[in-house]
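Dear colleague,

Following up on Tuesday's group meeting, I ran the structure prediction for the four-component complex that the binding team flagged. I've pasted the input sequences exactly as they went in, so you can double-check that nothing got truncated or mislabelled along the way. The structure tokens for the whole assembly follow below. Feel free to forward this to whoever is handling the docking comparison.

Inputs:
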Amino acid sequence: MSLGVAVIGYGYWGPNMVRNFYENDDVEVRWVCDLNPERLQKLARRYPSVQLCTDFATVLADPKVDAVCIATPSDTHFELARQTLLSGRHALVEKPICDDSAKAQELIDLAARLGRVLMVDHTFLYNPAVRCIRDLVESGRLGRLLYFDSTRVNLGLFQRDVNVLWDLAVHDLAMMDYLMPGQKPVAVSATGIAHVPGQPENIAYLTCFFKDTLVAHIHANWLAPVKLRRTLLCGEKEMVVYDDLEPSERVKVYDKGITVRDESELQKLLISYRSGDCWSPKIGPGEALQVEVRHFVECIATGAVPLSDGHAGLRVVKLIEAATLSLQRRGEPVEIA
Amino acid sequence: MSLGVAVIGYGYWGPNMVRNFYENDDVEVRWVCDLNPERLQKLARRYPSVQLCTDFATVLADPKVDAVCIATPSDTHFELARQTLLSGRHALVEKPICDDSAKAQELIDLAARLGRVLMVDHTFLYNPAVRCIRDLVESGRLGRLLYFDSTRVNLGLFQRDVNVLWDLAVHDLAMMDYLMPGQKPVAVSATGIAHVPGQPENIAYLTCFFKDTLVAHIHANWLAPVKLRRTLLCGEKEMVVYDDLEPSERVKVYDKGITVRDESELQKLLISYRSGDCWSPKIGPGEALQVEVRHFVECIATGAVPLSDGHAGLRVVKLIEAATLSLQRRGEPVEIA
Amino acid sequence: MSLGVAVIGYGYWGPNMVRNFYENDDVEVRWVCDLNPERLQKLARRYPSVQLCTDFATVLADPKVDAVCIATPSDTHFELARQTLLSGRHALVEKPICDDSAKAQELIDLAARLGRVLMVDHTFLYNPAVRCIRDLVESGRLGRLLYFDSTRVNLGLFQRDVNVLWDLAVHDLAMMDYLMPGQKPVAVSATGIAHVPGQPENIAYLTCFFKDTLVAHIHANWLAPVKLRRTLLCGEKEMVVYDDLEPSERVKVYDKGITVRDESELQKLLISYRSGDCWSPKIGPGEALQVEVRHFVECIATGAVPLSDGHAGLRVVKLIEAATLSLQRRGEPVEIA
Amino acid sequence: MSLGVAVIGYGYWGPNMVRNFYENDDVEVRWVCDLNPERLQKLARRYPSVQLCTDFATVLADPKVDAVCIATPSDTHFELARQTLLSGRHALVEKPICDDSAKAQELIDLAARLGRVLMVDHTFLYNPAVRCIRDLVESGRLGRLLYFDSTRVNLGLFQRDVNVLWDLAVHDLAMMDYLMPGQKPVAVSATGIAHVPGQPENIAYLTCFFKDTLVAHIHANWLAPVKLRRTLLCGEKEMVVYDDLEPSERVKVYDKGITVRDESELQKLLISYRSGDCWSPKIGPGEALQVEVRHFVECIATGAVPLSDGHAGLRVVKLIEAATLSLQRRGEPVEIA
């Protein structure tokens, strides 16, 4: 039996969602909806079996639609997801889950009450390289985590309504949340700048503080001449570098670090350095979105809780909200509730 | 006529200074002084003509010593430089000029009063790649500057007495000061962490705010599995990436950016994107230290003001002091006097 | 009016051809034909409007088929292309045009006699980076050409019937033919080895000699741990490096070289070296196959001669035939007729 | 007791030899000899304890000279080495051992007869990365060797008297000889070109054939815009890539390859592909020349046979001689005696 799916929004990301739902054997893509009819025309040629419309009501009126994938601008996520859930459908929402933590909580409550799946498209959680790193963390091989550092910069589309944290850092925060399970940020400090007067910040630097001697930093930038996608996750025993643009060795594990010995009788600490081999695990192929769509379908079928559920979406939104406040105050730290 | 030089400190950096002074035809290296006689033994074999000693007084007692190069730990810079100047000698001090801005000012005043050259070893100012970038800035080719972003990370020696800003970020701040002439930071925000309890911070992130929509960020880190030395200097017209580890094209100039048009009648801004050619200027050979030593010798001979004079040293120290304070307050912004 | 197209073969390359014909607005993909019905099933889901069949006769029986794209193993190219042309259709044949130069000549003659377009899928001729290099050559900027050197290695599928030259070097030879217009190879020498007993050579090194002091070399290898796609085209004035795997600067133009002066009175040559800037032209986006399909459609509409016509295909096959002979004789040079 | 050493030739390579002998505690550098007195002046300043001269006889007249290091142009190696040995001294000769295999044999015989150490400066045999690869080969980890492929290109000094094989490929041949112990080339084929009329070839491609399904290829080039130093050594089980310019992971070991199964009942071969992890062993620091000098001193002290003895030098010269002949015949294979 096939799951009836509608995709809302056919701009930048929608085509990827449509393609991946389309190629999933357990799914029937029934509708694609976009306010702009021109965009839909491209689609018609490619997927003649899919129905097209420009208003959301048409989608909801189809009783064969079981789930809705929302790939519209983030300020519309809340209302579309709310209506989706209220109509009894499951929802997969593009990141960020929505533009406000209170509304995110409302969606979580609604989904729980109605027994529907609410999942957020934190794509990197379904990326084989990121999963490989999570396995490394869980195996204990890295040892106690020391820091997370992520750079995501390129010459990218300046968004009008949200700053670069909402657009780019959301990926890194979702990864951080996934790769450091159980670690809760207690405060953030963020700095940045808007180079176009009256527009949101196009460069931002964000630090997350944790209870322990753990720190996370993210550099998000729409105005860089080169594209960089590099994440460091360093533990006491081993250190990981994940370069998403590297064609062959995307994940490298370094047997490097320091060892601290407390020489009590000497009244001092001795620090020694380790610099050993580097190892690059084979990363299986597989498109993250394909894995993600399969996971969404399974959660609907089995009632399982998605890896990137509403709570994961909410945790990320809370951090961005706090960071945006700190940004306005030139780095002043903001506590996370 | 030859300039009599003494080098104080023969640890990590001292050998480089000795070699470069030694190879300068206008210099006679008369003394190398280090508290540790073992270090000096290595030297004896290599430079049999140089006299060795373990106390500074011996150096000062030699009337043929015209200038002193101080390559000792930074907390000793002030006292050694002070005595050097008071004894009527010229001083070249390893970076940072000293560990306190008030003392730096005292050295500046002393040098001015006694008419002696006080120069700080901001090595990158004498690096041909950095000079090439400065020329690009001055030519107007980059347009109005938008941001400076510098990453300097590797698995490096943890220092006991100073945090990583004093050790690594000092290079980036000196470069920033040189590459953005006339731009004065008004405040800084810094975050970071000390992974070894009771020790100074080994990771730090520093943001400098300026009057205008200009921002600078530095990432300094002693605990990274990979070595990165990358600086971005982006202007409205062109953007520069300087990768000090790149064997061939160390400086790349990108014809990339955005163009903002104010469409008054439309009540909105139009942003368009440019992505053109990339150009990598030929960087001449030449060791920075060799150029620096030559400059020091010339300033002594001609009375010219060094490019990296005491004021440059002081500006950098003030920023690090403010950043260290901000670091302790988890990013709270600190004004620059 | 739409061009009716059939694609024969839906293995490795066929899906790319189908997709690009499908997305061309002037084309109607009427048939995809493959001996293997399983392969066709995948297609059915994706392109529900396309008709499927397992025998070529069905395709030829459809009067609305105007052109046939042949993407089958190379030993079937000749017969399929022959029938295509004889039935009055235009043919686009995957590289190599066929497995024998006499047969390639027969196809050329047939197409000429029947007034049909015969085009070979030398994909790189339609690649924007390669076109950019051709423009550089034609502008005279590189000066007199000195050598072409191309490396195409990775861990690739060992083919059963043909050696690695027929599979990989064909790309480099087609590029060479295109980038050095008017230069005719006079002889080739090739070496290599078959690591699997009884199978064709999986590593080959090929040198083309020209009349002048021009040389070309190609390294083709199915058994390499890393993927390399690098081509050098060096002229007296400037030198080009084309790295097809480089994400950003795929083409680099180096102002490097030597200058030779004949010092007659000194009875010797003076060689001086130039090492100037490097420049990387912006390469437009655009998939090569899309450009190629458009060119095929245009040639049919206008009667223009395709860039990669049967003669281009024949020139490449002749070189591979000669190289295969040389390979068997451990590098003995073989003249090109 | 200190070994008295003289270095002959203070051009490109001589200064490296002098420095490394100078820094060896068991050596006293007594003389440096060069026909050009200007070169020696630079030296005087740097190593005031070393005696300088412009004729070789002066060196030989000093009874405290135990060993001579010959770093002059290769056409002078034979005569200088011969006189060195005849005078009872040990000889370390820069690569190639000399310019003719018969003369190399004469030096070998002379050294044997007089009981003196004759060593050739095949520097890469003392490079820690190359030694690491040799250990991998000997451990059996790579499995049966399949091929060696080495690229050594850059914009380098055109030599007047010898082609690029004598200058660059000698390194790769020495490495090949060392990394594939017991494997004897039976024939070579070489191609190339001289871009400057009347001068030796500045680009050369060399293939070595072995008895088995093993092949080696070397690309040596003085006229390339980029510097490449990459060697592949591929075995049935694992494959090594050695990139001498890579700052961090110079040696990478790939768990990649093919597995061939003979399916007799199916009358065919099944080839399956392996693509596993990549591993980069930590390469210790240490300058190759320092290790080499120490080895030379030890061989003299203990009578041990140098790793790069006269026979190693001769094997390399024989290959270059055969390759040069093949080069003149456009790739025609030449047997190795």
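Chain B is about 35% helix and 35% strand.

Cheers,
M.
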